[in-house]
Structures are given as structure tokens and as C-alpha cells.
Amino acid sequence: MSQKYDEASSLYKTAHSLLEQGDTENALKHYHASLELLREANEREAQARVLNNMGHIHVERCEWDDALNCFKEAKSIFEAINDKLGMADQLQNIGSVYRDKGEYNASLEHYLGSLSLYEELSETCSIANQMTNIGYIYAMTNESLQALEWFEKALPIYEQIGESKRAYLTRKNMERLRCMPG
């Protein structure tokens, strides 16, 4: 490992500690400094992980465009190094930012892309999570039947893998949809 990588790792750890203390501003500064060193050291996967963390801070601060930029850059890196799980996670993150922005078509597109990769990788819990995310988008766009279909696909997966809390929440979402008029 290079000296730059070691320095980047130290900055990363400091950023993580700052984040745990709620100091998002200084955490971002340390993550950014870590990212620059990782770029100089050409540590691609580590760069993507730092960008992912920065994206989550931007989400927490409702800085949607900055979050999207981080997640999209991380996705590009994961794509370049052929890390399909990293790509799937970033597609999910991007979909969630679009959801939070109210851009449901873009959100749905990214959730579906993420689902496809999770299915290819047999990431069972993540598959169910994407199905509920997709169901949620359909619920938000008043497409109750499609929402129910996606929740119905996710529920047995959650039950099968012992995710009882998520199964319960999925059932509650289904009940709410069934009680809606029209």
C-alpha cells in the first residue's frame, strides 16, 4: 500500500468519527481530502466507497444534486471495475434520491436496474427491498394494483429469509393499499 493510501485511510477514519458525532460538514471535508488522495493513488474501489459515503451525507442534508453526483460517479467506478454489487447499490441510492426529489419515473428506472443486478447476483434480501421500493413508487403515483403486485412479490421473500420486521411493514403497506378507495 502506498503512503497516499495510508493517509487517505486515516482521513477516512477521521471522517467516519466526525460523522458519528454529527459533524457532517467536517466529515465531508475529510472524505473529500481522502478521495483526492485515493485518486492520486488510483485506488478505484476505495474512491467509490468514499463517494458513496459522501452521497449519503448529502442525502442527509437534502443536497440532492450533490448526492446524485456522488452516487453516479461511484456507479461509474463500480462499472469500470466490474463490481456488479457496487453498481446495484448505487442504482438503488440514485433511485432513492430521485424518489425523494419526487421524480418517480427516474426513480423507478433506477430501482428496476438495481433489481435486475441483485437478481443476477442472487442477493435475496436486496431483491425484496427493491421490490418494495418499486411498490412504494407505484403507491406514490396512485397505481395501487401495481404497488400491491410488487409488495406481494416481496412478502414471501422476506418471510423465507426471516426478515419479520420487513415482512410486517410490507403487510401493513398492502393493507393500506387495499383500504384505499378506488
Provide a descriptive summary of the structure in words.
With 182 residues, the chain is mostly helical. The chain contains 9 helices and no strands. The chain has 2 domains: 82 residues, Serine Threonine Protein Phosphatase 5, Tetratricopeptide repeat, CATH 1.25.40.10; 81 residues, Tetratricopeptide repeat domain (Serine Threonine Protein Phosphatase 5, Tetratricopeptide repeat), CATH 1.25.40.10. Helix 5 packs antiparallel against helix 6. The radius of gyration is 18 Å and the shape is elongated.
Question: What descriptive keywords fit this protein?
Answer:
182 residues; mainly alpha; Serine Threonine Protein Phosphatase 5, Tetratricopeptide repeat; 2 domains; 85% helix
Q: What is the averaged pLDDT score?
A: 96
- Measured as a percent range, the helix fraction is over 70%
**Whole-Å distance between the termini?**
61 Å
Strand content: under 5%
Helix and strand pattern:
HHHHHHHHH
Count of folded domains: 2
Low-confidence stretches: none
Q: Please, how many helices?
A: 9
- As for the CATH topology of the largest domain, it is Serine Threonine Protein Phosphatase 5, Tetratricopeptide repeat
Q: What is the radius of gyration? A: 18 Å
The secondary structure category is: mainly alpha
Q: What CATH first level of the largest domain would be assigned?
A: Mainly Alpha
Q: Architecture of the largest domain, according to CATH?
A: Alpha Horseshoe
Can you tell me the overall shape?
Answer: elongated
Number of strands: 0
